[in-house]
User: What shape does this take?
Amino acid sequence: MERCQVPPQAGLGRGRPRVRSGGRSAGAGSSDPARAAAAPLRHRAPARRDRAPPARRARPQPPSGAGLPGGFDRRCWMALHSERLPPDCSAQPAPGTPGDERIYAALFAKLKKFLVRRASDGDPPAPFLDGQRYYEQGLYEEALTQFKKIEDTDFQAMFLLGVMYYDGLGTEKDPERAVEYMTKILNSDSPKARHLKVAAAYNLGRAYYEGCGVKHSTEEAERLWLIAADNGNPKASVKAQSTLGMLYSMPVLKDLKEAFFWHSEACDNGNLESQGALGIMYLYGQGIRQNTKAALKCLREAAERGNIYAQGHLVEYYYTKKFYSKAADLAKRTTENNDINMLAKKADCHPTYVAKGVAMAAFYLARCLQLGRGIKQDQDAAKKYYSKTQSVSKEVRNRRWAPPKGTEREDGSE
Assistant: This one.
């Protein structure tokens, strides 16, 4: 899938922000111009920093807090889900796999017999495979029983027990115990724990950031997420990469160059939320020189993929550039669905920013209806969308978004 590539002549390559503890090495940036030109997705801050940004025309003011991610508070800035077991450890196909259901059921009946036979022979992996089958079917209590049999010897079972205790799946929530499991995996020297380390580091970072099961520490969360992000490695935790982009946009650690770097890495690795954030940073010159062409490419692609926040910013851009028909048409599509949590889950984006995108679109649609710009004038409809703007904006200010009950896999699937 094509992502927000920027033409090499735009002077944008991969930057070299400062190194933090546990983060990237000093050689993260490439000094080879040919190599940099061959990889336009890696963004570099432009050489000229003395050029003043172009003056922007006055624009009608959208709802407060609708701009670039920033001004976050610790309770509602990012959907922090547990990373689940990497997909290559799955014991069965993902739910919804096409095929004859009768054959599917028969295969699992055979698998059950096979697992029972292996368990009776004393084969250690059998409880994990059986537990994983229960886990993927949502039978968490049965899965917990199987994983507990091998919690001291099987790192995959240990990992899933950590997720279950943290999210309260099949048992009461016990975040302290979850932290113990994840810490043991992260600190293990066993080759069998190697493929679980980045997901364990992400989950531990989440625990430290939320202060759940351990004392709150933004610094420790940052350190752990840097480990999980692994210098932008696409095989590492892409969630950690996107999370770092959000973290460095916050007032407590505000470093927009770092935010831009990590959103670039996550965007290159397919993260939808970071693709939208990257477009906004280009649009307003935050952490990088303003580049409208790159901004629109990112925002349009993110909007097509379902990023509501990107759609809201596109509506604003079209309106201020007097493309009123485009603004009204996109705003109508963006405001069709009022189920913020459903939209957030579908796009894997934080509900706060989904709501902000809806509020922005509703505001500009109301203005188009009020003034008859790009759409037939309708004062009653305008009042309706102004009212929607206010109600959604109030929800953004007052609601504390909690992570969904379900957790995601490392590949983003349920």
User: Anything to note?
Assistant: The CA atoms of residues 147 and 157 lie 5 Å apart. Residues 5-59, 64-80, 90-100, 400-414 have pLDDT under 50 and may be disordered. The chain has 17 helices and no strands. Residues 351-371 form the longest helix (21 residues).
